Amino acid sequence: MSDVRKGQVTIPSDQDFFDATKTLIDKWGADAIRDSDGTKLDPELKTLSMKFYSTYFVARGHNEFAASHPAAVQQLYLMSERVVAYTPTLTIGLMAGYYDQQIQPNWRDNPKTYWEVIDRTTGMVVKPADWTVDEASQSVQLSAAIPFHEYTVSFLADMLWDPTEMYNHLTNNWGDKPHDIPFDVRDPAARDFIQSYLKQWLKANPEIDVVRFTTFFYHFTLVFDQHAREKFVDWLGYGGTVSVAALKAFEQIKGYRLRPEDFVDAGFYNSTFRPPTQRYLDYIDFVQRFVTDQAKILVAMVHSADKEAMMFLGDNWIGAEPYGPYFKEIGLDAVVGSVGSGMTLRLIADIPGVKYTEGRFLPYFFPDVFRPGNDPVIEARANWLTARRALMRKPLDRIGYGGYLKLAAQFPHFVDYVAHVTDEFRDISDKIADTIPYSSLKVAVLNGWGKLRSWQSFIVAHGKRYEQTYSYEGVLEALAGQPVDVMFLSFNDILATGIPADVDVMINVGSVGTAFSGGDIWQEPRLVTLIRQWVAAGHGFIGIGEPTATAQPYQGRRFQLADVLGVDQELAFSLSTDRYWDQPMGENIAWITKDLTLDFGTGTPNLIAVADAQYLRYGREQLRMTVKDYGAGRGVYIAGLPYTLDNARLLLRAMHYAAHKESILMQNYATNPNVEVHVYPGKGLYAVLNNTHDKQNSELFLNGKHTVVELEPDEIRWEREPQ
Amino acid sequence: MSDVRKGQVTIPSDQDFFDATKTLIDKWGADAIRDSDGTKLDPELKTLSMKFYSTYFVARGHNEFAASHPAAVQQLYLMSERVVAYTPTLTIGLMAGYYDQQIQPNWRDNPKTYWEVIDRTTGMVVKPADWTVDEASQSVQLSAAIPFHEYTVSFLADMLWDPTEMYNHLTNNWGDKPHDIPFDVRDPAARDFIQSYLKQWLKANPEIDVVRFTTFFYHFTLVFDQHAREKFVDWLGYGGTVSVAALKAFEQIKGYRLRPEDFVDAGFYNSTFRPPTQRYLDYIDFVQRFVTDQAKILVAMVHSADKEAMMFLGDNWIGAEPYGPYFKEIGLDAVVGSVGSGMTLRLIADIPGVKYTEGRFLPYFFPDVFRPGNDPVIEARANWLTARRALMRKPLDRIGYGGYLKLAAQFPHFVDYVAHVTDEFRDISDKIADTIPYSSLKVAVLNGWGKLRSWQSFIVAHGKRYEQTYSYEGVLEALAGQPVDVMFLSFNDILATGIPADVDVMINVGSVGTAFSGGDIWQEPRLVTLIRQWVAAGHGFIGIGEPTATAQPYQGRRFQLADVLGVDQELAFSLSTDRYWDQPMGENIAWITKDLTLDFGTGTPNLIAVADAQYLRYGREQLRMTVKDYGAGRGVYIAGLPYTLDNARLLLRAMHYAAHKESILMQNYATNPNVEVHVYPGKGLYAVLNNTHDKQNSELFLNGKHTVVELEPDEIRWEREPQ
């Protein structure tokens, strides 16, 4: 690491911390300083030749405005608890399970018009004439309920407290600091306020170089319960974008009217796991169009003030999804987001239509990690090695850190490690930022969301691990750092325009009925026919978990492409059919799994091999993998794939096997799964990565030439192309 | 065991084994001798004052008739393999995967009328004009197949070999012994033959006392594959009852025509796990009516010959289901069946409408168990203790053994053990055969089959254990020997006539979508309303596994009675909703599970507690039980319940808890779960059973009076009612 170049690094700072900050700027080669929610910068810092970022909140933090414009408050549709009627008279309390400091029913807009009472036992909407509201008790009364039916009320609610500010407020005990009331840019007064306030702010802050929008107008769906605990969280949820004005505008633009149930969705609130309905897709499009139009006004103002506009990827980002069709129009210079994995790095780094991307690395400088006796280097090292794999495929333009710099400075070993990271980052960036890495094949991840939610499959709350998703998320994490091109396709995409000609392998991964596996769209004959034909023509199809599955078996199959994958799932109905597990592991599976220690995670129960597939049984003798020839193509099935280095290698080999590209894989390859090879033909360079904290030896094939390598812990070794 | 009374015991015998048989008759107190498939009795036996049973095959074993009446052969509908079309021309071989010595396509009846080619990608039937048949190659040709659609042919096939005879033939290497061709009583010639042959046989066999029908006309569905291995087995399947004559008769009687798909059912063949369609229920009724009419003719002939008619419960028993509505009309004297468990004992012992029941105990005298170095007492003891619990509730009238008596006689320790069993059986029978045991509550098992398949839930092949069923079957096994009245109710029963007034607790147990859990019938508002109302009025509802579940969530719930049970199942859609596992185990669950070691089997994944239920997490911290008050009643949920003595106790406590009958349970109770108490008020007797092979101590409550007991291994202790 002889490189001494500086730059591409953003750090936070603190008040009364000027000299120490200067030292760290030097050590880490930082060229930008950011503030954070709750920190103020030392005025002396402004004397340095650095870029300055300022966090900017568009639609909160102005309670003087919000309080005087109560109708401009942000809103969402909520479902009451489910209440069983014991008699025809039934009272449903709206606020049961909600936090009254965050949520209040909207009594301004006529409940009879904008609310819905639903009989959840029949699915029928109760006639408005059959219920009344009582504002004093915050409840709805039914007069002709059917005994022992369950009822819910879907009501429009005001959101009186920005959820992120609320979380920070409660977590940091900010006491009687007023609650940030979020206001809705769709309200004309709010729109005027937002624009005029920014105008004035830009004038008042000439020293700021980068306006870091945190974020724009609408928070992802985040609702708290009566104990002020998180109750519902969907990082991708559009719940908080609704209002009477939005409903009216939608009707005018899209030509039909949405119902409360289109938002409430029986209590699932259009979770990203739900196969999106056309109505919800229409609504997303409608909000994206509107947010784009409003955001681009603000960005233009920033540019007019000779500043850059940066968007934080999170919090109030709804409607500004970076892979959406209108995003580029906003005209942002940059997007910054938190890097917790290779997958989240790619989510940021791959964003099209911006000048640069920045990743905030872990750990955040907070007392939970930076406490006496703890070694923050452990998390930093894991974070860097996980993210570095992905960086080798698509480098971020900048990296950074957040939190309290004073805390981090107390850990000299950590300060040194960050110096190593920033130097290594710049070195990688210098070598490969302007070149295209070699890919041995092109992979399409096929699900209900496609490109819009690139690298975002299975996310509930950013960075949290879920028992029901980790066995699927591993697929994206593996792909994030592999020498393959990755694209995301939706079912609608391929039904509309077919499978792109350059795709070698498609992957369908997820659990039955979800947007990621697909749900009942697999009963669409055109879909299965298209894929069968494409596979038979010589391509590869990989299913993981419950791919191509319908909740009910359809025409005798649960996996609708069982014929391609060589596997189906029993639902007890087929127990009468005998299964014979008398085949040895097939040679094709042996090739794919060679020398790997496999972990199928939560796996998938009750699998059966069909159509003469080769199969692998593992663990409690359950079926875990199948491979199958299908025409000139191949199907591969894997029961689950949590992220491990061995599992990543399993996927890489499976993809090359499925695509009939085994020999191409072996051209540039490390036999040790802890070691990965990346090739940069434009530079004549190879990178050999040790992805572990231990020494690793490996046989190596570079340009087909065999050699061996011994790598230090964490090492990245650059090699010139062998002749 | 001072009783020296003989009787109520049937044994097999052998040729050249007269004296040894006499000794065993004496030792075991046998009063009846049976032959078996493959054994011949010693003529001298006939001199003894015993009853003689003769196995009698009605519809096979007469190849001279069968060969001369090829159209009378038994038939079934089969589905070809699923074949993908690569081009519009597609050939589907009918015999792929079938055993040509068992199965041949029926070319006599016009395929264009009686077969169906189905596009399994669309579910559409292909027009007969678009396919042709080729008898020489046993195949069907499509001329206008849609490329990359999957097709199947449903064809009518002849069954050329009785499946049970085939199994015995292949297993015992009977070589070139001709294959028994089954013929169909629906054919007028076959009917005449069957009746006239029986008439002649009855005359020719005056020494036979009991005609043991093995069985009547139609074998349960049992098909073999191209390697002569079992391919499809459904002990309850009506697949082998069909023919053109049957189809025509059905249409005349029921007023509509069945399709091949009504039998083939996309390859599931109406497995007992499928929620029965009305068409299949109609067909079952139609076959039962016909079989009853034909069987009662034969039984009347037996009676005219002054013999008894006994039916073997199995093999060719289809249409003569003992819990069916017409069964009693057959006029049988007895039913005999194999006892592998408490559940199968009750299946036989509870049969209504016969003079006596007989259970064949294990082990069967075959060389697999009776081999040098093996101790057959191990299996005999386990079998007896498992069955004895159930016998205490509803005694069989007779017990017996089968196989080669010569083999058993070589194991003197086993001979002694059977003497113990037969004596203990007669002692129990003497004490309780004519009295009604005390029941502390009445339990109804609620599923799609109801009374028709009493004690037959989850059976695929008689006596086999399946990974997907053992966690549910344990419920019936537990109930079989518990001091509760058990009845079986179908959804249609309670929709038609409500829940019987004397039921205290209903149990719904099984996996989602099956006949046992129920499937989509749970979307019927009347069903859930009826049960909610009933529970709220003070009754108990117990769900085990995936009770009340629909494959797709309906109105936000997967378990449609989640409100009663306090539990629902996640399908990823609700991951956005936070779950807080911060409650300690509730006192109600603590009461139910007191001192028990629990085993939830395969359990049920992704459960969530709802509606303020008390819950239990167990094992890998998964939710495993909930209890909930519901009006004046209670719901209890258990994730799975394989049969163990502790689990049986768990169920017993849960039922009494659900029914608010905790104090009644404790009136007659052993605190040690290995010990069970039965009360016979009419006799003033208590039986205290040690269900294990170890000594057991227990506190005991008899008539509410506390005492302690120490029991020898396997002991049954009789006590007079304490005053």
From TrEMBL, chains A, B:
GO terms for molecular function: 1,4-alpha-oligoglucan phosphorylase activity. It comes from the Bacteria. It holds the Pfam family LBP_M. Residues 7-438 form the Lacto-N-biose phosphorylase-like N-terminal TIM barrel domain. Residues 442-662 form the Lacto-N-biose phosphorylase central domain. Residues 669-718 form the Lacto-N-biose phosphorylase C-terminal domain. InterPro entries: Class_I_gatase-like (IPR029062), Glyco_hydro_b (IPR013780), Ig-like_fold (IPR013783), Lact_bio_phlase-like_N (IPR035080), Lacto-N-biose_phosphorylase (IPR012711), LBP_C (IPR035356), LBP_M (IPR035363). This is 1,3-beta-galactosyl-N-acetylhexosamine phosphorylase.
